[in-house]
Amino acid sequence: MEAKEYSGMTSPGKATPEEIKRRNLSIYGAKIKSFRIRAHLSAEQLAERLHISKSSVRNWECGLTRPDPDYLLRMFTLLNVEPNEFFGIQGVGSLLTAREQALVASYRQLDEAGREDMEAFAEAMAGKARSRQLRAAKERMTSVADWGRYAAAGDGAEWPEHPECSQVILYASAIVNRADEIITVTGNSMAPQYHHGDRVLVEHCESLRNGDIGIFYVPGYGGVIKQKAYDRLHSINPAFDDIFPYEDGATVIGRVLGRIENAMIPSDEQRTLFLEATGNAK
Questions:
Q1: Strand partners, 152
Q2: pLDDT for residue 91 is more than 90
Q3: For position 93, what pLDDT does the model report?
Q4: Would you say 223 and 268 are in contact if contact means Cβ atoms under 8 Å apart?
Q5: Mean pLDDT, range 78-87, rounded to an integer
Q6: Which residues, at least 6 apart from 230, have a Cβ–Cβ distance to it below 8 Å?
Q7: Same domain, 155 and 251
Q8: What is the CATH number of the domain that holds 70?
């Protein structure tokens, strides 16, 4: 069967034969030759597999004619080239890498039994890779409770009577692993060390050393974040008054280990892996 060929333009009267040839060569001919060579096929071999004459392939590659769309589609398969790659289109679909193209080529050379074996092997390897991803996610990340409590760096913040606990996923570290709760700072009495809106990691404990930053509950004030001093709860920011716990009945909630930094927060993809690894995926 001879190839159907055409060399006309959308408006043939507006282009000279030489212009048509240059266009055919640029859009089709040079690319067909390049990808044919990459696929280790001669012009004769390509023509044989397309069931056309060698001269048809030569005419394409010289720009004298261009292939009918049916032949072009068949060439994409024979030459292991993606349409986007052939036409140089970026950002539409994914292009196969050279290694991926080699795997596709190997797959196409197998018989049906061989393809089934290769598919089963690929599926098994993908499952192992997924297991490794989940295991790594479980090792790299952990979760810390957040009951929605605020500790005021100012006039105090009342805590919800029946808080709902949520779990915040963070990258595991010595500090994160010690934390029992995340509490949000409101106000600026602890500036510049802690600012309004900071979320701090808190380790629950019954007592603190002088100089420690802690979370306290003070009747009439609510939750506060302060520095423990000998006889008071100290505000680092001098614009705010200290609190005298012996007079106000303050109790220790826990030690502040530090604030949550951006580097501690996993991406959405990593959080999804952790949830799947811990059996909490929705």
A1: 186, 224
A2: no
A3: 46
A4: no
A5: 82
A6: 210
A7: yes
A8: 1.10.260.40
- pTM of the full structure: 0.58
208 and 97 together in one domain? no
Within 10 Å of residue 69's Cβ, how many Cβ atoms?
Answer: 9
Q: Dihedral, CA atoms, 189, 193, 198, 203, nearest 10 degrees? A: -100
pLDDT at 9: 40
- Locate 143 and state its tokens: 């979760």
Does an H or E element contain 174, and which?
Answer: helix 174-178
Q: 67 forms bridges with which residues in the sheet?
A: 5
Amino acid at 55: S
136 falls within a domain? no
Residue 245 belongs to a domain with what CATH number? 2.10.109.10
Residue 227 has pLDDT above 80, yes or no: yes
Assigned token pair, 184 = 């949000």
| Measured distance CA(225)–CA(235) in Å, rounded | 9
CA distance 46 to 41: 6
Whole domain around residue 84: which residue ranges? Answer: 5-108
Question: Among all chains, which residue has been given the structure tokens 């390509």?
Answer: 46
Question: Strands 213-218 and 251-259: what pairing?
Answer: antiparallel
The string of pLDDT tens digits covering residues 191-204 is: 899 999 999 999 99
